[in-house]
Give the backbone structure.
Amino acid sequence: MQTNRFEHPLNEKVRIYLRLEYLIRQMTHASQLSDQWQHQIFFRALFDLLEILDQVQLKTELAKDLEKQRCKLKNWLNIDGVDQNALLELLDSMDMAHHKLIAANRLGQDLRDDRFLSGIKQRFSIPGGSCCFDLPTLHHWLHLPLAHKQNDLSTWLSQLTEMTDALNLWLRFTRESGQLQPQIARAGFFQHTAEDASLLRLQICPSYGVYPMISGHRGRFAIRFIPFEEGATIADTIEFKLAIC
């Protein structure tokens, strides 16, 4: 059965992590295509990502969070019923990601220092500012051979590898820490406790014609399902699945 999936962070740090993951996915997807319009999406996502990195001390916080996860996982060593080989493999991955993240330069610094990127970044903050008359340098790059462009895109993405690997591991572990459980919203409303949780994951059948508006923090959260079509009615009971991670 088809389901719509939603995620909602329960603190500001996870909100930033999810935004970074979202931007990295855009960049990765756009870098694999030959369409020059997709390449402009790559640059816009990249500059949004650098803006976030300029505002927060991500490297330190992410390293701390990865180490906390590693300590939690070590508590499962030598416990019956736990796949020890898979656990050791995950611990090794975390050790490596943590080490590389700590050893890395300031996140995104090589991208900030790139002459081509720094030359076009400011214009992307202007509506329509990436037109050829605004950015002839970009227009020239967009018409270079595809192999040349893909090499550049791959190089720029690789300069975020340490952050990407650590972020993906932390989000993977966090998502897997909670299992999807069936729930029922009555009159489009559901609330529950979420002690020490970081993330909500939700699945709902699109046939209900609603989307969730979620509010909350670490202690408690509420979900109100809103009709997508103006004036539409809401089912008395809405079945969905929820994971508190």
Observations:
- The domain at 179-244 is CATH 2.60.440.10 (YacF-like).
- The longest helix spans residues 12-31.
- Residues 165 and 231 are 45 Å apart (CA to CA).
- The radius of gyration is 21 Å.
